[in-house]
Give the backbone structure.
Amino acid sequence: MAMIYDRFMDATEEACLRRWRGELLADLEGDVLELGAGTGANLPHHPSDLGRLVLTEPDKHMRRQLEARARERRPDAEVTPASASALPFADASFDAVVSTLVLCSVPELDTTLREVWRVLKPGGRFLFLEHVAAAPGTGRRRLQRVVDPLWRRVADGCRLTRDTERAMLDAGFTLERIERESLRKAMAIVRPSIRGVARRPAE
């Protein structure tokens, strides 16, 4: 997957993802944690004046590429193999957590969201860009359900039918902004997407 991922995503990056990443991350500030940073597609978009930038990537092949790109673009970034479901950071450590095309593939979404909540400071922001299940009752949703078991095997655990928006609300996050749009140039089964900002309420 690490060998082909960038080429597989290139058309969609050019069509929409690169712009969406830039818009989503433009006003980040303070200490930032990025989950599943992959090969480093977000690196050009993180502001240069962050207090701390920590990038997690448990896949060793992806992490090798991430480390090389970080040395070139963001030598101040910390790269760690930490899993999103067991983050080795103290409670309330970060001003913001970033997740782009990650939550579809974590084994336990609820556990990951609890960890995001835990490491965020009260009032901290969770910035997300994720492909999700299509609207209920649509032909695309039915196709996703049929294809999902095989897709998980060939796409490194990626789930096509996750309702990530509902999961964030159930975890206690407040949705400040959410946009629903098609991932252009992507395969039809992964086109439905959401992006925006959720917040851990201030205590």
User: Anything to note?
Assistant: Strands lie at 31-35, 52-56, 78-80, 94-100, 120-131, 174-182, 192-199. Residues 5-199 form a domain with the Rossmann fold fold (CATH 3.40.50.150).
